[in-house]
Amino acid sequence: MEYHDFEKALSKPRIGRFLIAAKQDKEKALRLYRQNIELSKTLFGLLSIFEVTIRNYIDKHYREKFVDHEWLKNQCGQGGIFSHHSFNKYGFEPRTKILTTIAKLGNRYTHDRLVAELSFGFWNYMFAPIQFLVGGQSLHKIYENRPKGTNQKQIFNELDEIRSLRNRIAHHEPLIFNSKDHISTGQTEKIYEIILKHTEWLSFDPLKLYHKLDNMNELINQINAEK
Question: For 182, which of 44, 74, 96, 114 is 20 to 30 Å away at the CA?
């Protein structure tokens, strides 16, 4: 496809950032755009597995803690963790999110469907200070292979970086530039390493869990060769 047609399809502002990075080399700009899509595609594949894994481990933890396979719904009731007064004080509303999702599911509701419908942000925020506190301050134990001294704050902040990357991919934002629109994969590589690290902390081998999905190093080398 000619650059003009690509620009017409995607809009001048969107493709323009790639043209700036390519120093007005239109062929290179198109190549960078396609490389960015390949990078996004690979990361989204890894994130799809990681997201399901982390939410399942959180769910398993609280099922066992509360001895309740319907803990999400039941902890919204009086005396439940999601009805704790601290949420009103700080404006967090996990209870509203849960009940809204249950209503949306209607007669299709099952606990497993509820778990699947709640966003990655919801599960990320189970490590936020209030959720972690009212949940019994034990959720970090799902990371059986975490280094000694790894705390809730570090886990929350790193999961939040993963969530931010996920949202950037979902909104088709470039992953290969710095703030000055220069080719740079440093921030993306950092978060990729966090994904692998958290995978290992959950006692999985990334090479096996992401088998035939992870070609990040190859893609990063291709993109950095364009500098």
Answer: 44
In a domain, 97, yes or no: yes
Q: Is 50 exposed, middle or buried (0-12, 13-18, 19+ CB in 10 A)?
A: buried
**Short-list 6, 46, 67, 29, CA closest to 189:** 46
Please state the separation of Cα 16 from the chain's center in Å.
27
Per-residue pLDDT of the chain (227 residues; tens, 9 = 90+): 688 888 899 898 889 999 999 999 999 999 999 999 999 999 999 999 999 999 999 999 999 999 999 999 999 999 999 998 888 766 568 999 999 999 999 999 999 999 999 999 999 999 999 999 999 999 999 999 999 999 999 999 999 999 999 999 999 999 999 988 899 999 999 999 999 999 999 999 999 999 999 999 999 999 999 98
Question: Is residue 170 one of the residues assigned to a domain?
Answer: yes
Q: Is the residue at 50 inside a domain? A: yes
**Boundaries of domain holding 190:** 26-224
Q: How many domains does the chain have?
A: 1
